[in-house]
Records
---
Amino acid sequence: MSAPLLEASGLDLAFGAVRALDGVAIDIHPGEVVAIVGESGSGKSSLLRVLAGQMRPDAGTVLYRDPAGHAHPVHGMGEAALRRLMRTDWGFVHQNARDGLRMGVSTGGNVGERLMAIGARNYGGIRDEATEWLKRVEIDPSRIDHLPRTFSGGMQQRLQIARTLVTRPRLVFMDEPTGGLDVSVQARLLDLIRALVADLGIAVLLVTHDIAAARLLAHRILVMRRGQVVEHGLTDRVLDDPQHPYTQLLVASVLAA
Ligand SMILES: Nc1ncnc2c1ncn2[C@@H]1O[C@H](COP(=O)(O)OP(=O)(O)OP(=O)(O)O)[C@@H](O)[C@H]1O
């Protein structure tokens, strides 16, 4: 197997007396989808933010391996380099599409802007690619000049995904990408994410409390509880044969629902 894209170990993070992260280790390889699951408050979002360089841990390291194979400490690279990474090799899909879109910019502009950030300059080419991506995420291209605020929640989320994936990042962080949407909209969005991620071969770190979403999308699962990883392994193994009592409880509660 190739070297990990992202490799973290010994991560600690405290908010006062709350240990949000307690000795967490995680890695993700190119093209792999890893889900971080656990109940509310277990530390999932904190972990994602630390891994993406948005928050500094109290202890531990996060290493990112660039396309040339050089490993860089995420928390030592500086804000400008991190911002550049987030525009190029990385992407972030927020639970609330409004956090990942520019609501005052047209639909086509939202997608095109990311292409311009990596150097695209030909207006016609950018518009053609934006049109192509709108089709890919099942948004009618006749909406290309409309503002995203005229869209439903599901459409906004699909637009955020187009905006993030158009530059073909190597690693995408997703924080509850289907949270807050209707169940039928969630199912369609999960299918879309699964198809796009497989097609593009993107690595995804997915935070979710939805075990069904993790089963559908992830190759591997990490189960968090009170800031610790209590179990990790291949998705089928973890969900069909959970070893830790907490994972057993989590899986049983879904089966009972
Ligand atoms: N900025 C903050 N200030 C104080 N406490 C925080 C902060 N962010 C997170 N916490 C606490 O750290 C713990 C982990 O929170 P975190 O949001 O990472 O969990 P989570 O598993 O993502 O939960 P949820 O699914 O509800 O988002 C919780 O006890 C939370 O209250």
---
Amino acid sequence: MAAIFRMSKSSNLASSICRAFTTASASASAGSLSPRPQWVFLGCPGVGKGTYASRLSNLLGVPHIATGDLVRHELSSDGPLSKQLAEIVNQGKLVSDEIIISLLSKRLEVGEAKGEIGFILDGFPRTIRQAEILEGVTDIGLVVNLKLPEQALIEKCLGRRICSQCGKNYNVAEINIKGENGKPGIYMAPLTPPPQCASKLITRGDDTEAVVKERLRVYQEMSQPLEDFYRTRGKLLEFDLPGGIPESWPKLLEALNLDECEEQLSAAA
Ligand SMILES: Nc1ncnc2c1ncn2[C@@H]1O[C@H](COP(=O)(O)OP(=O)(O)O)[C@@H](O)[C@H]1O
């Protein structure tokens, strides 16, 4: 009985996400455009998935879909789920697969209606079950795994500030980690807001030290196994961030063989 329940729950989830993903893939192949990337960004809280996924989505012309943003949007909307979500997120726990897949499917359907093709997923999948459901419904071309030492992750989360008006992310932390055991040091300058955002900065409710530590623990337990899941499928690109955006962005483009793509786009701009 329990096994049937688990199976039927899974297949319901798979079919709702499947509808959303298959329409997105159908529009990709209907046009004459070459297939657009369907990529996933993995990495611990605070590593910078949002920053680099958003830059790449602008460069490649595909939507950046962050499940954390979908969750935050839902919890600030005063809808029926908002209280329940606030409690889970502010404890650093994961939201249920059912809720996440429902939010993601809705987001994909809205994008499909606007003609979006391809995607960069940030924060999904976060569990093996989510990865299996995703694998059952669409092909993921590449999984980028961003990495930073734990000390930098904690400092970055605690220093994160968001403009309550435009939603842009800044960081007041100056990170300076000494190199040791043959590993190079890491320096990250603060990401200072422009004057129009400076007076409107807010901090995420889950960016307190206790909750960040819990999020890191949950990541290790639930999401780290995804590295092996994608490694064994030959899809994982490991990327140790060498520093802040000025050092890391060009190196990431190089690792993705996109450095020429950016040169062409900036020459055309
Ligand atoms: N794929 C997912 N599965 C379950 N919960 C999720 C998922 N994506 C986001 N969440 C919830 O939203 C919160 C914020 O997500 P995100 O902004 O990606 O945070 P982080 O900085 O910890 O990577 C998570 O702590 C979790 O509660």
